[in-house]
Amino acid sequence: MFKTQVENAIDLLYPRSCVQCGDAVEERGPFPHLCPPCVRRIHWVRSPACTVCGYPFFGAIEADRECPHCILLRPVFGSGRTAVLLKGAARELVHGIKYRREIHLLRDVRAVLERAKELVEFTAGAALVPVPLHPRKRRERGFNQSRLLAEVLASLSPGGGVEEVLCRTLDTETQTRFDRGERLRNLKNAFAISPDFSLSKRKRYVLVDDVFTTGATLNSCAKVLRSNGAKRVDVATFGHG
Ligand SMILES: [Zn+2]
Ligand SMILES: [Zn+2]
Q1: Per-domain residue ranges of the chain
Q2: How far is ligand 1, taken at its centre, from the CA of residue 131, in Å?
């Protein structure tokens, strides 16, 4: 099979082994860094699921509704979807990119999202807004993983595009001296609209983040969008953690 020089170089730098179990990945399939058994164990989320965080309901529930955790969150965004449960191989992809800067794993993330039809339909036509990193963190990591995810989603779902409408004005990660309550209160003031941006009432904004955990960060971002004129704000995450 024809391979470009760049691909050859990438293969040399990053031998094709499964990021989750270390087994060799032989075929040039859609998942270059995951072996087929690990791919089969990925849990893609389908309805019925929580309308806020996207966590699926197992068992007898047939309709979408809020899960008990999200009722307490009191979200200011409309609804939220997620592609996968963030465990096993899916979790390893996010951690590899985020903590080990293994950007090549983005190809596997793309392959996961290509198979997350409900999420791709959900983000179609929307302005995709990455949850921003503080400039210090962004420099340290070299990229914002939420921005990379938003770009992948934009390329998969027609009609939309990435708009970096938000910026992070407060470095919340340096606030370890505060207790959880204080950190949550500070989170409320951690985001702002980027200079030179104004929001459109007609657009639908979808906040994009790698993981939905408590939803507090996404809710803070949604509040800033809403209070600056956005009428429709939803949330899309790669995984529910
Ligand atoms: Zn594997
Ligand atoms: Zn939920």
Answers
A1: 1-41, 44-101+116-240
A2: 30
